[in-house]
Fold:
Amino acid sequence: MVANFFDTIGWAVLGFVEYLGNVAILAGASLRSLVTQRPRWKETVYQIYSIGAKSAPVVLLTGAFMGMVFAAQTYFQFHKVQMDTSTGPAVSIALARELGPIISSLMVAGRVGAAMAAEIGTMRVTEQLDALRSLAVHPVDYLVVPRLIAMVLSLPLLTAMSIFTGIVCAYFVAIEVLGIDGAYFISNMQKYTEANDVYTGLIKVFIFAFIIVFISCYKGLQCEGGAEGVGKATTEAVVNSSIAILITNFFATMLLSKIIPP
Structure:
């Protein structure tokens, strides 16, 4: 029984390593194509609209309420020790370094990552990918690279908009609802929030953009089993992307704290 348990663990580890290797191969092929092949700009522009413009309402709404909730919770705790005016910098730094990048990336992974996996997976099960290959068109060049460019351009902008919206909404909640002095809120936020806080968040977002695209496209390219397989690939793309973002965020935070001190 113990031997079977360790065999199961061993096969699971090998499967995970194989999965990481396949995603890395796809990433390498995509980056090589990005350098050596001319991108399909028409498809890239459409993907920017699909990923960026269509995701903006969801990301902005999430950022707004995230800022308001965090401002309220921060005030409730700081008020106990008479530190009400510290709410501003606490909200701005948290949104810039952690909450903005993480929540925006998770929302985009749920919306766009699922769409990528479903679209490419449908093309896989209906043999459209084989038709592309028969026309001497590589699926990575045609499908993955435009989505990669669009995600790398769109996600940082969406995150910046989310951070700004969250801070503005947090300001109005703090001033109009919680009764914090507006001058102290703004003054302390400007005093303690530095450019490094914003840089840290945006660097993380670039990493998350690659994670979302490569995992979602890989799940779509490996999809099998008809409609059921497409649904499974879509679910796995969202779950795996979300888990990878959360795990990567920890290591990115520890590394960037050494490179870009808080």
